[in-house]
Design a protein that fits this description.
Length: 334
């Protein structure tokens, strides 16, 4: 999974580089800056002295010394002054310049803290959004493993709007599903009646559709495996393989395994990630999932959150993972 949101102390993360939320002097401080210098040892400060500081939004690289990480990329975030002083642009530049340097050094992995969201007062949900969108854009065109390291749950907050509307959506459906169960028996007969009527209606409609299409197409489609349907949809949507697996936040190797095995059965999370990458609507998603033997159900939060985002037309897999993480669900992708 190219982007992972993890809850950890960044000084313990085994990535090629970890990013330090520094100040313009680069001579150490508190927070994550203090923790990194403490874990790296005095040589880090010695090397920082040679860098002559760093401007806000810029980034500079040093060795990692006693850290598990080989390098430290120091960047200076903006101090939050209400949001009308170019803070968002400067914070985006911190992530962009750190990723640019990591790419120049051919690093395979990098770990970010939530820059500026501590002493510099940047609202956590806004800071998180900036991080997710810049890293997400980068990963659509580059192969790198990116960790967004959240130090504690309090620090990990998704935007109020997103959080409350998903919470509402879950409550509506999750509760409804579970209360409905209690009345299931009473309505059982009614539901069967409605189901029979609608199936008759559907079959009549389907007969019309079948007449218009050559029978063996329909037969092929009915026998279409998950992989066949996936490849057909990729062609129909004019996408490239790399666009699909990057948008799905899954490894290239896994994708080529799916592509090369006509009967491959992916995990539910991978199947959903691919549906999101293809920007399928809810029915198409259910259809694709059914080829792998899965269904979306209102009896678990993971599925309800996925359904929410599809209905909202929000296919940003990093935002979806942000929401899944906040509700302590598994993330999408491998
Ligand atoms: N690992 C991961 N994240 C951490 C750690 C850690 N060990 N320690 C703190 N954090 C988180 C904080 O919870 C916050 O979400 O890093 C984020 C950034 O907080 P700060 O470290 O306060 O950095 P910032 O807000 O960018 O302020 C920078 O603080 O430490 C000084 O010298 C630094 O002057 C500079 C200012």
């Amino acid at each position: 999974m190219p982007l992972e949101i993890i809850r950890d102390d960044i000084t313990k993360v085994h990535a090629d580089a970890i990013v330090n939320a520094a100040n313009p002097s680069l001579l150490g401080g508190g927070g994550v800056d203090g923790a990194i210098h403490k874990a790296a040892g005095p040589q880090l400060l010695e090397e920082c002295r040679t860098l002559n500081g760093c401007e806000v939004g810029q980034a500079k690289i040093t060795k990692g010394y006693n850290l598990p990480a080989k390098y430290v990329i120091h960047t200076v975030g903006p101090i939050w002054r209400g949001g009308n002083n170019n803070e968002e642009k400067l914070l985006s530049d911190c992530y962009k310049n750190s990723l640019r340097i990591a790419k120049e050094y051919n690093l395979e992995s990098i770990a970010f803290p939530l820059i500026s969201t501590g002493a510099y007062g940047y609202p956590v949900d806004k800071g998180l959004k900036v991080a997710i969108s810049v890293i997400g854009d980068f990963l659509l065109n580059n192969d790198m493993k990116v960790y967004l390291v959240v130090y504690n749950k309090e620090a990990f907050k998704i935007s109020e709007k997103l959080f409350s509307s998903i919470k509402q959506y879950i409550d509506d459906r999750y509760v409804k599903e579970h209360t409905e169960k209690r009345y299931r028996n009473i309505e059982e007969r009614q539901i069967r009646e409605i189901y029979k009527e609608s199936m008759n209606f559907f079959m009549e409609e389907a007969e019309q559709v079948v007449k218009k299409r050559c029978l063996e197409d329909v037969v092929n489609e009915l026998d279409e495996t998950f992989t066949q349907m996936l490849l057909r949809l990729i062609d129909e949507k004019g996408l490239t393989d790399s666009q699909v697996y990057k948008r799905a936040n899954i490894d290239r190797r896994l994708f080529s395994k799916i592509r090369s095995d006509i009967n491959y059965k992916p995990s539910k999370s991978t199947a959903i990630a691919l549906a999101i990458a293809l920007k399928l609507n809810l029915d198409e998603t259910k259809d694709l999932l059914s080829k792998a033997g899965y269904a979306l159900s209102h009896s678990n939060k993971f599925d309800i959150i996925i359904e929410y985002f599809i209905k909202e037309g929000n296919y940003n897999i990093f935002e979806i993972n942000e929401a899944l993480f906040a509700f302590e669900q598994n993330l999408l992708g491998v």
